[in-house]
Amino acid sequence: MTNRQRTQWGILGLTLLAFALRIHRIDVQSWWWDEGYSTYLARHGIITAIKMTSVDIHPPLYYVLLSIWGTFTGYTEFSTRLFSTFLNVLLIPFIYQVGKKGFNERVGFWAALVSVFSPLYVYYSQEVRMYTLFALEYLAAIWLLMRLAESERWSWRTLGALILVESAMMYTHYFSSVGIVCINLVLLVLLARQHGALRWQNARAWFISQVLAAVSYFPWLPFAIRQSLRHSDERATPLPFMDFITLVWHFFNIGVRGALGNPGQEPPRPFVVAASGWFGVFFVAAFVFVVVRWWRERRTGDLGMLSLWTAAFAIPLLAVFGLMQWKPLIHPRYVMMLTPALFLTVGALLADLSQPKRWRWLSWGLLLALLLSISATFARGLWIVYYDEAYYRADTRSLARYLDSVTTADDAIVFDSEDYTLEQYYTGPAPIRGIKMRGREAAGLADLQAVSAGKKRVFLIHWDLSVTDDKRFLPFLLETAGRLADHQTFHGYDVWMYELERPVEMPPLTPTAVNFNNTFYLQGLFSETRAYAGEGVPVALQWHMPAPVDVDYKVSVFLLDEAGQLINNMDIMMMNELHRYTTRWDVGETTTTYHVVPVPLGTPPGTYRIATTVYEEEALRGLDVLDEAGNPAGRIAVLGTVEIMPPRLLADPYDTMEGIPIEKPRTLGEGVALDGALLPKTSAAPGERLPVVLLLHADEAGLPDNPFTVEIVRGDTVLGAATDHVGYGRYPVSQWQPGYPVLERRFVIISPDAGEGPATVRVRWGEGEPLTIGEITIEGRARLFEPPAFEHAIGESFPGVAELVGATLAEPYNAATGTATVRLVWQAINDAPIATPYVVSVQVLNAEGRLIGQSDHEPGNGATPTTSWVAGEYIEDTHTITFRETPQAGARIIVVMYDPVTFQRLTTTNGTDTIELPFSITP
């Protein structure tokens, strides 16, 4: 067998191996959204494909070819993906030919070998998208460029082929423009190196060819310009250069974007990313080594070809980075066309290092390092592509099977985005409607009303990658029209099933007036006044922004019990109808945010408060709520109340019980059992309030109304206890629904005299035997019984609680930070333990009495709460006051102590509710 025959058999073997790798498990996963869209266009024919891509982000050629392919093969996962496989398998012998033409057979063989095992190529050979076609087209352009580079006279045959390839690229992907620009830049460099009449003859032929290529694209140019300008993700931010290069490099080597994580964060698959990183290090080292050696050996021809391949990779990549600064929406698969140039370069390096003539040990070392790093990267990457279920495509097939089994003609299926995939799998009787919400809330409401009219249930489907209803408008509407009864998850999808009780409509907003630091005005409000445990409370808030802001704010809606404890909340970015964050709102804009606050299933019935706050996510700093006089009144605005009723279903579709350890029920008494308990804290100080969460249930109705006692004990000594019925005494056992969970949140105050050491927390019902629910450690704190130093004596007191004996201006006003620090010295004068954790407020009032600075917290920043005070001890309490405006002459400092639940202020011995300090703060 001749060398040529061996080479031919070798390339055939690599091609067959590539086919086997790409066909392996090709139809294990279902189509995902992009593939469903491709298949939808192909199914509906060439004309439909052209019409729909005129308003899409990709041109029509791939869909037209897929439609022709599907006419003969049908439209299954296997057949449609086989088209991508066929295109990528063609690339293997083609890349061999390009490497052979540029250098020799060894370079072509190495480049083909790397391409065969590329996880990127395997992954996209199993996806019904245009990326393998795009890579093949760009490789053809490189081939033609090489033919022109080696020719003195540029033939019209080659230029004609280049016209066809460039036109095909432009009709395949809009990012082809950067590749075409690169090809023509190289051609201009080649023209510049020619001389005389030949240069002008070739230049004229080149110019005509590019004019013809442009003319071939003229019919599509208006659509391309419109879509390029329109399509964007306004919330995306450009990547720094090194993050961009690193992301593209790892993606080209691994093939699965999700396995890389986000720049600046630990990747979820660190081994393969580390291996790819070492591949990059050795690639650069080998590249520099080979270039230097070729330069010293004056191998100008080889350097020229390597430069051409490098330019074909690097120039478009840099151009894409520049485009990303304008529109940061680029997925690295958009530049997958560059991989043939990269793999050709890798093949040239491997071929040269494998047959060194000089510096052999260094050559062999670099070769071994490259092969090991490539092998580790590709092997792990292939395993991720084939078997790592965390990065499988969304499982639309299983979703459709579920819907087939549970839906009837009385149901409707709603996608919170356009749907092109589920409809091709689903065979049930329910209508399916994809509803895009961004910029079309009124139209979206009308779409939902149309599809849900006369239906008993609506299945709302959310694809994990969908961003068309980030405001969660559809869940809000469906919750106002009924209740969430079930929640199912599939890989890539959430399915919420709503039972409708009334027609879907947008409820009217009640005018309101809440001023969040003159930054946002809450002008309208809707909140249901009655809800059920295990369901949700829908809330709509209408906002007005009077001036531009430089922060993207979030809004949180809370459900609070009568003690101010957080029952649940929902946070969402403040977005307008176009889903723009607040920094991109128009001045004077008014928009509405939508919230559904889940009520935990075991929540005791009663009256709860709905409240909201607006805050900066990164700094976790809320905006002040201003009263009518413009003074801060806290950072939470209470919007109203909601009456929570007992649950209607023994279901928890919102997963509200998550986080509470569920265990085997333990009997507390005949008919009552403890299902679980949670101690959020495992250590506490004397006098501190220890939170306790209990999960209970009754086995039968009509049980006696014995209260529950939670106590902290050490041996036979009780260190703290709280006895009451559930729900602050409102929900005795006789009212419980048999078999339904009951969730109790309670505080137990540890005795201020409790010594250090371990203690046991237990619960009992009535006079029954107690059950241990956990252990805590009581950690004592240092107590002062000698007065610390202070500058100004005060001597005023809040009877039964404390005397403010002194104060010091620890740090004067700092204009740079807008703060000042005051240190207070309290002495406890309580005859019995203090049951309320009072808050101390230090306020600065201007000459007109308006609040301009404030600091509120429990004494000692919460380290020495009033519940821990013992008579006679001294407490140092430091307050850093934050100012809203610069203090001026005449400003006063007052001290207030209040109940954080009722906001009731304590009264001093003088009959006032404030203590004025005998000094002021001025710049």
UniProtKB/TrEMBL annotation:
Bilayer-spanning residue ranges: 78-95, 107-124, 130-149, 170-191, 203-220, 272-294, 306-326, 332-351, 363-386
A UniProt-annotated Pfam family: PMT_2
GO cellular component, one term: plasma membrane
UniProt xrefs under InterPro entries: LipidA_mod_glycosyltrf_83 (IPR050297), RgtA/B/C-like (IPR038731)
Keywords: Cell membrane, Glycosyltransferase, Membrane, Transferase, Transmembrane, Transmembrane helix
Membrane topology type: Multi-pass membrane protein
Molecular functions (GO terms): pentosyltransferase activity
Compartments it resides in: Cell membrane
Domain Glycosyltransferase RgtA/B/C/D-like: residue ranges: 58-221
GO BP: any one term: lipopolysaccharide biosynthetic process
Main location: membrane
Name recorded for this polypeptide: Glycosyltransferase RgtA/B/C/D-like domain-containing protein
Protein source organism: Ardenticatena maritima
